[in-house]
Fold these 3 entries.
Entry 1:
Amino acid sequence: MHCTNPYAQSGWTNSSFPQACSELSGLQPSVYGALPFTSVSGDTPTFYRFCFISDGCNFTVVDPPKSKTYFWIMDNTPTTGFMLFQNRDRKIFAVIEWRLSPGTVVEVRDVVKKQLVSSWLALSQDRSYRHMTIGGRSFVWVPRDDYIGLYSHGIANPELYAKVTKVDPSQVVLDITSAAIRLGLLDPCVVAVVLLQSGRHID
């Protein structure tokens, strides 16, 4: 199936990034729910790193040393066409239903009501970025040379909340700020990363 979203399989160059999640430098492990690590002060945002590791069908989302698993993402579920997202307690918090008509459906418990992905991650009119609304706040996913950035939307000076980088065919990295986590963006960002990097039709 050909992908029509402007991010997946877009031919980004990743030469400036190491080729393994454990080799990525600059940020230390994070602990979702505790987040004890801070590496910078002042106006520079603190980022926490999560690595998506694929076994071909399913994903685990781990910290860079791969010592802690924060999310499990399962595509080979008993019900064909569904992808389930589990948190650290192995409780399902999100579901993607892959379907052609009327389109792929997403739901993130208590955050994103069940709806078409084309509504939740709506393409801009010029098809150059995607909108995302969480908790009444507007954000945009914007492709850059080496990553996709999540920015605040509708303000004079957009704030960078997260970056998504594909380091090799089986590994994707999400760097997300502490401010974004406080706003409750981590769970929906994990789901959005899978959708944007899926290579599937999501509109």
Note: The first strand starts at residue 47 and ends at 54.
Entry 2:
Amino acid sequence: MPAHELKSSIEIDATPRHVWTILTDFARYPEWNPFIPFIRGRPEPGNRLQVRIQPSGTKGMNFRPVVVAADKERELRWLGRLIVPGIFDGEHRFTIRALSDRTVLFEQSETFTGLLVPIFLRNLDRDTKRGFEEMNRALKNRAEAASLADNMMKATG
């Protein structure tokens, strides 16, 4: 069965806890997330989410993946399917790995499998990859701005 994987990572000057808090606060995604402007549901295994992805320059799409893993401060993973298994499936992973006390490596990746993967390959490599990179930069900006504000408050308080 055809398969394809996309990955994008970024270093963020924030704690794993802080990045996880932003990542799993779905209600605030419209404030900062250009790739996933809407998500509803709870980040708990077995829960079905309502998600809208919209890489810049595209119409976007809505889908309803199931959360398959939520390892606090480490990994959030969901599985989305087009109609039935084996047609076009995507397992999306967000991972947070501590590099130091105050720095993490955030990686967003997705493995696509199914009969339609070759048909969508060009759009995945162009649009979806761009969406990953846009979200990663936005997450970095939000996390680092909040971390800086917290540090300034502690220094003056």
Note: The CA atoms of residues 69 and 94 lie 10 Å apart.
Entry 3:
Amino acid sequence: MNQPIRTEALSDDADLTRAADLARMQRMATGLLVAAALVYAASSFYESMHWSVGFVVATAEAAMVGAIADWFAVTVLFRRPLGLPIPHTGIIPRKKDAIASQFGEFVTANFLSEDVIGERLRGKPLARGAGRWLQRSHNAATVARQVTTGIAGVVRVIDDAAVQELIDAKVARKVRDTQLAPLLGDVLDYVLDDSRRQDILSAAIRVIRFMLEDHRWMVREKIMQQTPWWFPDSLDRAIYERLMNTAYDMLIEVDANPEHPLRESFETMLDGLLDRLRSGDDMAEKEAALKEELLAEPAVRDFTQSLWGDVKQSLLAQMEDPDEWFENTITQAVVEFGRTVEDNPELAARIDGWIVDGARYVVRTYGDEVSRIIAHTIEGWDAEATSRRIELQIGRDLQFIRINGTVVGGLAGFTIHLISVIVASA
């Protein structure tokens, strides 16, 4: 009457232990049934010899009935009793899919609801407990290693082409959106404030004078090239001398006179340039064209294309073989974070709130999906294997139903026979 558990279907030592316990309890329950049957058979021969033997017969008979009834009740959960095609037997194998769906809904409704999760987590010092845990050097080092390993894993699986496309798009958008002319105007306005403008002009005048002095021969050649061939050298020389002297005199005059009109013209010209740069009206098209030329430059493209590759290689090299300084830095950062959380009640409370809100969001968003996963997983199991596995988990306790049924049945039989005797003798 006891179907042995197939040991080849058991996955680990724990299952083997459960199977042994189940078999032992099955033998005990069946042994009681056999004992009741033997007592019934033996006592039936002596029932007529003495009225008291009737109590033994009735007790044994009722014990057999109770044992068989409860054996049937337990067995029909997992299989057909004796292989007979009795309706509504083999409940678990036959209704596995329905049980799977109902079990998934039960778990979601009673364990993965927002109210249950929120109530379980609310008021718990989760953040401060985690902070104390993180302050232990061994734990902090473990977290640091997991962080570096996790970062390396994420970096490896990232699609390089997608990252490169994102970088190119970000760089191009940033360059196009940045208004360079107003920025340049503000920088020049800061550099060329009123106290520096005239000093810069004076320095420029001196530079021009020195350049003219050092390149007199070049000016002479240009004048000779521009005059007709029939001009005498004396006339070329006179033009050259007059031009150079005039230029020198003007530069000296402007340099020596802070109120010179050319200085005022320089101020006016510079103010106009800064205004145009800040407004950007007449510079917009030129600036846009310059940006497009910049983005089209091979050097810029090479830089953006190599940027992610260099960053990725650097990250992987550091994460896969971190030096002592890097490991200590990450570990110390983890310890400091844990200390900060524990010492700051407001921060800890805020983190606890985030945890509760996050858990409620996950349950609210993915609770039904968990139910479907549970149902789908159980539906994919083999019906017979599922029945055997469930029997391993609860079958040992179910054998006590058989044992109790035998005992209670015997007591009931004894009581009923006693009442019958009393009524008959009344």
Note: The two ends are 43 Å apart (CA to CA).
